[in-house]
Amino acid sequence: MEELCHWIDGKRVKGTSGRFADVMNPATGEQTGKVPLASVAELTAAIASAAEAQKGWAATNPQRRARVMMKFGALIETHMDELAELVSREHGKTLPDGRGDVQRGLEVVEVCMGAPAMLKGEFMDNGGPGIDLYSMRQPLGVVAGITPFNFPAMIPLWKMAPALASGNAMILKPSERCPSTSLRLAELLQEAGLPDGVLQVVNGDKEAVDTILDDETIQAVGFVGSTPIAQYIYGRAAANGKRAQCFGGAKNHMIIMPDADMDKAADALVGAGFGAAGERCMAISVAVPVGDETADALIERLVPRIEKLKVGPYTSGDDVDYGPVITKQAQERIKGLITSGVEQGATLVKDGRDFSLQGYEDGFYVGPTLFDNVTPDMDIYKQEIFGPVLSQVRAKSYDEALKLTMDNEYGNGTAIFTADGDVARDFASRVNVGMVGINFPIPVPLSYFTFGGWKKSAFGDLNQYGPDAFRFYTKTKTVTARWFSGIKDGAAFNFKAMD
Q: Quick check: 161 pLDDT over 70?
């Protein structure tokens, strides 16, 4: 059994707290390792070291920092299969999905290769008599990223790449369930030329999180996880004067209009609902067909597609559609919610509770589950299940379907499938959700845009990656400079002196 480490000052360092968390293989249910949980003293020392290293990194010009990103991106491509295997081994997702996890993180690294253009300020000469004005973007100092288990490569890369390219040092606390990928990425960054100490990977639990939130050196915190924890982190960070961007849960709806291509809609729902065992904040978990005829046609197409899904371990290669959920506790919670759906009156079309895989009976698997006639008062609708469960809620009209989406407390992603451009434009304009797909089920924006939800899916006014990331990880300083050649005036007592 492997004993994992922290990454401190450019090397793997064993923990000294004496506390550990188990690292499991969800496909087999076996423990593969243990990861140290940092003490306050360990984390405080890592933060202090990062603050010292950041001074030299901030003084490195943006072009040279961008070259580190270029080399880092090339190394990620070279080690793509290795990184995907690390992702899949600890998370359970299939190898193709693991490669996708790494790829979507790499795309943000690629955008950060152009960091100098994103970090430019503004300049105006002769803004007043002999007065020049210019602004500059400067790094915050030491920042922190607290990342979830479901994307062990992508979300750490979304955090670290723009933070480091902007000249900050980062304390990264990955999920203790999937720590290996972040440790390997830290090694690749060192190989790419990142100075030791600029990135510190510190494993931990709530004790580490609270230390990050309370430490005066850390200037900003980025988090992805559940909504209750996002609210907690945002509130405590703000109370301590830190910037925070905290992304929480989701309950993503997909509206299917009567004029939609039903086969394409069914394919989209199966992929978006069951991919990665539903453990995505952008998964479609609620299908909203408009009209009973549309609903019946959709169920008719969904059932045979779901019955063909292959569930199994990542070691089966590309011949698996999705794997296990992350823990035994998650498996039991999902099964409990399925049972509640039955008890509360939903129609259970496909039941995944009794799924078992020969040779992997101890794995954390849940079979694909489909409900019909779900209503908004049911637990399977109100809660983020985060598992391979798709609920169909029937709507009588487009307005009813839109209202259902808008009334939901979450606002991460949504989609509509239709052949009517006017309906699509109306939906995109009116829906109060941060990311919208039109005939596109999982509308995660490309890396040169930006990612973020609304309502209880996000806390903070700036999104992840894209231009917003550089705004989040820098502060603006504006200089007003005056040169007195040829200018004669006395003391000024009002702002008109600049006219």
A: yes
